[in-house]
Automatic annotation (TrEMBL):
GO molecular function annotations of the record: phosphorelay sensor kinase activity
EC number(s) per entry: 2.7.13.3
Protein known as: histidine kinase
Compartments (UniProt record): Membrane
Superkingdom: Bacteria
Domain Histidine kinase: 248-458
Catalytic reaction(s) noted: ATP + protein L-histidine = ADP + protein N-phospho-L-histidine
Naturally occurring in which organism (per UniProt): Yoonia tamlensis
Length: 462
């Protein structure tokens, strides 16, 4: 029971209610003592009035009046004159005097606690004001033990009542909390357990039903998290299926490209000037395609293989990309420009860097071709003390907001109709593998600019 929320709430409720009753009990017992002593003063005053009315009474009647008043003697002061109205033998000396005429709260509480803690027989003197202006002062002596017994009985009654109130209150709160809080929480836990068994099943996603504001907010957050996780799992499954399909296609495509590579080797021996000029480009493209298929089959996963870093000439790689893309844009009014130092060499994997630049330039070309307007693609490179920077800019229409939001997310950042959005994802992964980064510099109606940063140090960029 102590390990459950409702059980702990029940125990804490009982404890707090009992603590509250303790704070109420102390002034209450002090008030009871004050009423008890004032009652004895009133009885003593009535006994003295009976004596005045009869002038002379027998010793037996006097003893009866004192017994009924529960006092040993009564002293009245009238007109500055002290008069012993009733008296009887006192069994022991007076040990304490209490003035009930104008006591403070702290005095009443401390006197009450002293009475409760004292276990010895004592005779005490009580001083008070007579009722209805019956004199200036009334003074009685009484035995303290009856007072203590009455206070203990009163305290016991208060304790029993407090315990009853605590149990009833705690029970009501226990069932209220169990009904309003614990049961809904158990329902949320049950939904989470059911969802854990089959996270791909959208039917297991929780539907918020709680009426409590905080609990409903928790259910809505859990629902959102489950929806995102289910979507991610489905996406992962699709990517796994796609990876399996790509591996099969790569296997067959590699065989086809290998055959094409054999033919291109024969073509390289042609004496035709045009063939001699185009054959090296064709051979290079087919070789890269064969290597890509082989890497896909060897790796067998979504991730790219680690780059093989070496010193490569950046101008040559960019030149190969521009030659390839210029052929694809022959029928369009499109110009390509490059501003790269001929001697600039970067530390990178040549094949992977080629794929990155080709993805960026191809995206730029396709964006300009979609507008059916003239355009320009510019590639610029420079370096500083920390890294090499390659900028690819175009005069296309810019990226739409949705594409910017999901720029490097597969199947979500595509711009062209029918595009997969994988180009930038692959390019970003390849550059991160080099310890660098690919970022969107700017985009708008005047065009788009991407920047590739390759670090010169061995450590990745911060």
């Amino acid at each position: 029971m102590t390990n459950s929320l409702s059980g702990r709430f029940l125990i804490l409720t009982v404890i707090f209610v009992m603590l509250a009753e303790v704070f109420i009990f102390v002034p209450s017992i002090a008030r009871f003592r004050q009423d008890y002593l004032n009652a004895r003063l009133e009885r003593a005053q009535l006994a003295s009035l009976a004596l005045e009315a009869a002038d002379m009474i027998s010793p037996a009647l006097e003893a009866e009046l004192l017994t009924n008043a529960e006092v040993y003697n009564v002293v009245l002061r009238r007109d500055d004159m002290r008069q012993l109205a009733l008296s009887s033998p006192i069994p022991s000396p007076i040990t304490a005097t209490y003035d009930m005429r104008a006591p403070t709260s702290m005095t009443l509480i401390s006197d009450a606690l002293a009475t409760l803690l004292n276990k010895q027989e004592r005779v005490i003197r009580i001083i008070g004001n007579p009722v209805r202006d019956g004199g200036l002062l009334i003074e009685v002596t009484i035995d303290e033990m009856p007072l203590r017994s009455a206070m203990l009985q009163y305290g016991w009654n208060i304790l029993i009542l407090s315990a009853f109130i605590s149990v009833v209150t705690a029970g009501m709160l226990f069932f209220a909390v169990r009904r309003l809080l614990v049961t809904p929480i158990k329902g949320v836990v049950a939904h989470m357990q059911a969802y854990t068994k089959a996270p791909e099943d959208a039917r297991q996603i929780i539907t918020p039903t709680a009426s409590i504001k905080e609990l409903r907010a928790a259910e809505e957050s859990l629902q959102m998290m489950q929806m995102q996780l289910t979507s991610a799992l489905k996406q992962k499954e699709r990517l796994a299926q796609l990876g399996s399909g790509v591996a099969k296609v790569s296997h067959d495509l590699r065989n086809i490209l290998t055959s094409a590579q054999l033919f291109t080797d024969r073509i390289e021996g042609s004496q035709d000037p045009l063939v001699q000029r185009m054959a090296p480009k064709l051979v290079g493209s087919i070789t890269r395609a064969v290597h890509l298929c082989e890497n896909t089959l060897a790796f067998g996963r979504v991730e790219e293989p680690a780059p093989t870093l070496s010193r490569v000439n950046l101008a040559q790689i960019v030149g190969d990309v521009i030659d390839s893309e210029r052929l694809a844009a022959e029928e369009y009014e499109m110009s390509f420009s490059e501003d790269i130092p001929a001697t600039m060499t970067v530390r990178a994997d040549g094949e992977q860097l080629y794929r990155v630049v080709q993805n960026l330039v191809r995206n730029a070309r396709q964006a300009i071709m979609a507008t059916k307007k003239p355009g320009e693609i510019c590639i610029h490179a420079h370096e500083d003390d920390n890294c090499w920077l390659l900028t690819v800019s175009d005069t296309g229409p810019g990226l739409p907001p949705k594409a910017q939001e999901h720029l490097f997310q597969p199947f979500q950042g595509g711009v062209r109709k029918g595009g997969s959005g994988l180009g930038l994802v692959i390019a970003g992964d390849l550059i991160r593998g080099h310890g660098g980064r690919l970022r969107l510099e700017s985009t708008g109606a005047d065009g788009t600019t991407f920047v590739i940063e390759l670090p010169k140090a061995d450590l990745a960029l911060a």
